[in-house]
Amino acid sequence: MEKVIFIYGFTGTDRDSNVAKKVLDNYNLICFEYNSDLKQSLEKIAEELDSFIVSKTGKKEKVNLIGASAGGIIAEYYAKFVSPKKVDKLATICSPFKGSYVPIFYSKERRGLKELFYNSEFLKKLNSRKLNKNKTINFYSYLDVLVPGNSGKAENSHHTWDVFHFTIQNDKKILKKIKEFFDRK
User: Is the per-residue pLDDT at 31 higher than 80?
Assistant: First the structure.
């Protein structure tokens, strides 16, 4: 059974992957659990993701990734800079590719969170590389209160009318589209 790694976002937990596990029932969906307070750099978290994936897979085995919010940024960084050959396909849900205002409300000690602010050097680096559009799918909402407008829009993007950021990752329509995307060979 093919593996899908789910990466939740800021303040997320493994419970955030429960609906995805039900919808993507033909995959072995494994949640990457990490310290989601984002005090460490996103690059460091992506390196932890690499160790996690290596521990769960064979040497030449590829995985599909689903990243929600900051988890999508971590997943995309992983796919572009850390281990591109390990990723078959990538799905992101309401991830702040162009930034978010949320970091201004939190302590400056949260380095990873600061990297999600508009025009950060980290996001500039992330957006400097592109993925093959057949390898990635992206869902965003103009109405998302935490990742507003086009901030969540990336390659091969699809708009959703969901407005509440913390529940978009549980939208069964989105998850079914991700499943269909992963099923295409």
Answer: yes
